[in-house]
Design goal:
Length: about 170
């Protein structure tokens, strides 16, 4: 998408999502793209993608279900979201961070900031700590007290092996 310079990008992306809702691409109760999906599709920053969601929520076009995602608000009062991913929020966040590590987006020794994850995903510190504990158990990150959590310099050959994932 080419952005016009005289209008905030989040407004322009919100226009696209608004059009998709209006034309039925995203039906009532259906999930809309996540912050991460908006970042990838439109090449925008996480903060910008969060503004898109915040703006559409303020208009009443979407609603957010903690741990499930954001959905098109129902026009008939029936706002039950379709269960797209029954995994808990921390497991979903761990999946995102894991994919960033394995793809090289987060290179070895990259800081995995708890504060940044809290802000990006809009979750509490305890949720983020579940994420880091799981990734640490998988050998994907190491934590140094007082310094933070970093991508392991030597990633395991089979991430997730032995972690109980199917």
């Amino acid at each position: 998408m080419e952005f016009v310079p005289d209008r905030p990008r989040w407004h322009q992306v919100a226009d696209v999502i608004r059009e998709r809702i209006a034309d039925g691409t995203y039906a009532p109760g259906e999930r809309v793209p996540s912050v991460l999906q908006l970042e990838e599709e439109f090449g925008i920053a996480g903060v910008t993608a969060q503004k898109v969601h915040r703006g559409l929520r303020a208009e009443g076009l979407i609603h957010t279900q903690p741990g499930l995602g954001s959905f098109v608000s129902g026009r008939t009062g029936d706002e039950q979201p379709k269960m797209v991913n029954p995994r808990s929020k921390w497991e979903q966040i761990a999946d995102v961070v894991r994919s960033r590590i394995l793809s090289g987006e987060y290179p070895p020794r990259h800081l995995v900031s708890e504060v940044r994850l809290e802000q990006e995903f809009g979750v509490a510190r305890m949720t983020v700590r579940k994420v880091t504990a799981a990734l640490r158990e998988e050998g994907l990150i190491t934590t140094t007290p007082g310094m933070g959590s970093f991508v392991s310099p030597n990633l395991p050959k089979e991430p997730g092996e032995g972690s109980g994932e199917a």
